[in-house]
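The protein record filed here.
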Amino acid sequence: MKTFIQKLFVFGLVVGISTTATELLSAGADRLNFKKIDKSTNCDIQADSSEYQFDTDWAMLKGNVAIKYGDIELRADTVRFNRVTGDAEAQGNVAFFSTTGDVWRGDSLKVNVFSGLAVSSKFDFYSDPVRVIADKGSVYTDENKNKEYMLDNAIVTTCTNAPGHFHYQVKTKRLCLRPEDEFVAQGAVPYLFGVPFFYWPYYWKDLNRHYGFRFEPGYGSDWGAFLLSSYKMVIYRNKESNTYVDSKTSIDFRSKRGFAFGEKILWNSNDKLTGWISAYYLDDKDLPYNVEDPERYRIRLNNEWEIAPRDRILAQAIYVSDDRFMEDFFEEEYDEMNQPDNFLSWTHIGDTYSGGVLARMRLNDFYTQVERLPEAWYNLNSTELFQSGIYFENNSTMSFLNRQFDERIWLGKEDPSYDVFRVDSDFVLTRPMKLMGFLSVVPRVGYRGTYYDKTKIVEEKIVTTTAEDGTVDSKTEKVDIEEDADFRNVFEFGAELSFKAFSTWQDNQGFTWRHVVEPYTDITLIPEPNLLPEQIYQFDEVDEIEESNTVRFGVRNRWQYKANNPQASVRELLYIDLYADFNLDATGEEDEFESLNLDLRFQPISWMKLYVEGEYEQEKSEVSEALFRLSVWHDAFKANVFYRYLVDESSLVSGVLTWNINPEWAASIYGRYEYETSRVEEVGTWIQRKFDCLAYRVYLTYEPSYTHLDGREEEEDFKVSFVLWLTGFEPDNLRELDDR
């Protein structure tokens, strides 16, 4: 009976592949392809030929053998395979891999394709981003399709060149590797260019996040020889929910300043809650000008919490020991904000509105800042009223405002700080219309009501002082006298008129071009409010509103093109907005023409952008402000040039050029120059070299000496530093300098 069933199975197999057993065994070029060998499995097998042993359930598969079970796949020249147990003995050009990307290749392998358990006398395989070579070991795939390699005398490296020529490698006695996850090693010795430099009895490495040691040695005129070092480790992690808590401990040494210590805790929860808190401290051995306490520090908190798809909470708090600390040790942070910005905000975004609450506070009393403790705000986007064609929008705030001044300015005198409770609401009604089929007219009526719980009047008083030599000096000073609460009414009337004209044409390359011209006029009339700026405590632009009657004449030009392809989108080559502002209240010798303004955006090719804006003031016959930004990027290089001009204040030009010379070498150069003071603020460069699996970069920066406005001399500063990293594990920040 058993023999009969076996023969029936073979007959069904032969019929299923539409060939005879004789033809199959005699034709090496034919393919064997059968599926579902056993009801308990779902296994695909292909081979040029096969021999089946009925007594033992073993099959000998020969020629381009491929066995696939789920995500597991085995390929070899020959395979002895048991269809019941799933055991396989592969010989010749063996490849064992899964769709997760890890691949093992060798001459022979014993594996169970059902369980994923494999044993070999030699392992040499790649599992992104590491290559592993071992004398022997086993591999197991669990029911969740997760693989685990247990290897003896294994070498782990990110290099791809030949064994014996690795730039970096870790030799281990025992290695447990979980592809795309982590590996754990016992008796680990790292080698750099063939030289061992450390020993770990136990070594753990995450394959997705950069943990471990980081170093940046260097020299600076202000710091002396320095070594910035840190160790990053995981405190908690759950990869299924993308949740982690990391710790980064820093120990820095500067020969002129001493030791510094820092701790940084970072967290993330499913990308909904992300943030970090850090503390950094040093006992400074070389105090800068106007800093008396050698115990210097900075504590900083940053957090972002998406509590719902439309709700977000942001928090930032920075507390420093003195106003020079960030400039001395966190230059990049100081360039972004020369004064700490501390806030806690909640924002909600609706379909037609947005709102939230903001608290902005001063933590250090040696800064001047406007506190908002708190400020609630609400914005209603332009919304049509009952299908009437009339649109309504509103911006409202309710604020407890407090202007705090640097205590060093008034110490020993009367505190000049002041505070106000203010409620401000701005309403605008518009009625878009189209006249004569082409002229767009948008009249508007606005009202702004602002409540102040206190106002002021300015009085002059004579202040008399007596010097040590008995000399009496008298001078007149203006002082603010607090008044009762009041309500300011501001009305606004205006209209915008515009029309568009365009022409289209097609060039020789089949591109369709369009030139759009849009002349426009914007009239704004604001009668004199019942409260003038000098009667209001000043905090921001809301308190600066006064009578203003202006008209703006302008014209917008757009040059656009589209490829002759239904899927292509319209691209804009050039946008120019040129407009002039006129003062309708000009009297006597005043010129009605106030200013000429330009807003230009130009993208001649896909890898170049130019942005220009500026203002020319007629009264002073000079450019009052200008901004120029050019960005160029390509496969081999990218460059940015930035120029900012503020009359009588700043004329700053800065630029950076990064050049990928070839796959091995790259370089960058950058600098800032202030024309107003004829001062080179900073110049610098870095040079990078990439090997097979290693990369290093050398940084050079130079800041010439200069004199502050208060007469304080700042000495020149020169810095050089060096960083090294594995290309397979590039850290979040290459430099340690500002990652504290």
